[in-house]
Specification:
CATH topology of the largest domain: Pyrimidine Nucleoside Phosphorylase, Chain A, domain 2
CATH class of the largest domain: Alpha Beta
Structural class: alpha/beta
Order of helices and strands: HHHHEHEHHEHHHEHEEEEHHHH
Radius of gyration: 20 Å
Number of domains: 2
Number of strands: 8
Strand content: 5-15%
Distance between the termini: 55 Å
Length: 370
Amino acid sequence: MKTTELQLRNFGKAIMKLANQENISRKEAKELYRQVILNEQPELQQGAFLMAHLMKGPTTEELCGAWDALYEYDTATIHPDFSEECCDIVGTGSDALKTVNVSTPASFIAAACGVKIAKKGARLVTGVSGATDILELFGLKIDAPLSQAQKCLEDHGICYLPGEAFLQSGWARLIQSMRFTSAFNIIGPLTKPCAKTTSIVIGAYAANICPQLIDVLKDTGTKRAMSPYGMSEKHEKHLGIDEISICGPTKIIELNNGKIEEYTVTAADFGVKQCSYEEVASRESADGNGEAILDILKGKDDTPLADLFAVNAAAALKVAGVENDLKKATSQCKEAIANGSALEKLRQLIIYQGGNSGFRKLESLLERIN
């Protein structure tokens, strides 16, 4: 589709409006993001728009418009055949302090504790490895049909929905070349590729993003959600992580059927010890992060990294209504690591979404880890 001079000028006017700190309506935001998602503007205009919007500071109304566009024009959705509701665990990325991937192992742990997990994710944007990078290392095939993910969710209560698969026309194209934060870091993790997802734990890259994430989720129909922004005792508060922290306090905004609550938690609230950031920091490569995750899932439940995975899985148990007491939920999650049931969930997922070759790859990796 050739962009007309009028379309170029109108889009350019919108960029200048945002650059001048002027807000736009939900309807306007939907239309502008539609043009980005469907690649109807030159890349120069798209990049300028995304940065202008980020620097202005997106309003909740604008983010809802962006969510509307992403959901309507770019999101493929699975419809699992069961009556239960599903939960998602994901982070925005772009956080200052990088840890070993957390939402991925937390998903397997939560699933082992009885939560139906329809996890979404994508490749890295600013860190060492995204969920897709890690699961590919484990044997998952990104080009596997989404029907395989749906079948795994129906049979075993767990699946992985790669943004590269369910967001094919817009966001997946952008994320291949973008290495800067944009509103997509906020709305991408808010997409709903599983029709049964009613709850989510979504870590934020900045404290001020937490309430916006929750507001957008509330306005777009999510029942229960938790948005944590974790901190480290040894770092400035603006240098945080997009998950619950056990190396410092965590700010949480929680949504529960229309009611929003804000509070702060520490490692002690989950019944685990506080650790140093260095003990849970990201390894230097995706391979290193993957090996660290498998090392824990093989049953090593008494380490700071295991505690980090467990407390974040415990948050999913809470928002899904399985266990409201965070200490009890964490204890259940630690047991799922120790008894191997979390690892079994990973195996089941790879069998369905990676096939025989993927399963052999996973088993080979597990054998190499002492």
